[in-house]
Design goal:
Length: 303
């Protein structure tokens, strides 16, 4: 017999079931995976579900090469013991349970990787003003960043582990800094210093140095010519003083030679003529007597 008491009891039970069904569920599902990389670990977090508690999560992923499965109360999972500089592609799934009622599962294919191994930045070809920068490292990397004010914008990004730089200025020193990156996670920054040798010679640009030497050689030639001319002049002058023959000196020698010849002729004539006739009567009486005496003496000696 259906009584009022039974009706009330059934109604209360129905209300309890209805209330439990309304409030004992997840009002929002977990979403949005976020990856945090470390040298040897990867942490995956997600947005928490909302609903009546307690809320737990069923997590699974193959990021480490094998399927990891865990029941969690936190909104993150950490993969440890990984190798540095390794990238992973993995299907990751999480599902919340709110007070015994499961949410819709959230699934996503994610890319994650540990921090790239610290590279070495060096060069494998060096033409002084043109160099080829190279990153040497273990593990993986999907991009490389090189920083220096020489580049437009202060840096360049390349997918290759090398980058050719040309047109560096002679005499300048450049410090190139760079890092490798994997899935957007950078390695430690390293640097390489390159000094471009100056093409200056003795501190001067090549053109100025060449002009200097041309002028210097011309001056040396001029000085040598002047010295040679002066030496020749002095030599000739000295030679003329020591007996060198000039036109005037030749004339004087001719006159002296002629005078000598005349003297010899006069002497010979003196020896042949009568000494008394040879006397110069323009002399004084005493001079004439002496001249006669000398002439008579010479005549006596000659005979």
């Amino acid at each position: 017999m259906f009584t009022v008491q039974r009706f009330v009891g059934i109604s209360v039970f129905a209300c309890v079931i209805w209330i439990h069904g309304v409030f004992a569920q997840c009002t929002s599902d977990p979403t949005g995976f976020t990856v945090t990389s470390a040298a040897d670990s990867i942490t995956i977090t997600w947005t928490a579900a909302t609903g009546s508690g307690p809320i737990t999560y069923d997590f699974s992923s193959s990021i480490d090469g094998s399927v990891a499965h865990a029941a969690l109360t936190d909104t993150s999972y950490v993969f440890t013991g990984l190798q540095g500089g390794v990238s992973y592609d993995a299907t990751t799934r999480v599902q919340a349970t709110c007070n015994g009622v499961q949410s819709e599962p959230y699934t996503e294919m994610i890319q994650a990787g540990t921090i790239p191994m610290t590279p070495e930045l060096t060069v494998n070809s060096d033409d002084d003003t043109d160099i080829n920068l190279v990153f040497i490292h273990e593990g993986e990397a999907d991009s490389y960043v090189i920083m220096n004010n020489f580049f437009s914008g202060g840096q360049v990004t390349t997918a290759n582990s090398f980058y050719f730089v040309s047109g560096l200025s002679p005499g300048k020193t450049y410090e190139f800094r760079g890092y490798s990156s994997l899935n957007g996670v950078p390695s430690e920054t390293v640097s390489y210093t390159h000094k471009v040798e100056s093409d200056a010679v003795m501190g001067m640009p090549p053109m100025a140095f060449a002009a200097f030497w041309i002028i210097f050689i011309i001056l040396v030639i001029v000085i040598i010519i002047v010295v040679v001319v002066v030496v020749i002049y002095c030599y000739r002058k000295k030679k003329s003083r020591r007996g060198g023959v000039s036109r005037e000196s030749t004339r004087e020698l001719d006159r002296d030679h002629e005078d000598d010849n005349n003297s010899v002729d006069e002497k010979n004539q003196w020896n042949r003529r009568d000494p008394y006739e040879y006397a110069d009567y323009r002399l004084t009486e005493a001079q004439r007597k002496r001249a006669f005496a000398i002439a008579a003496q010479k005549a006596a000696m000659a005979s």
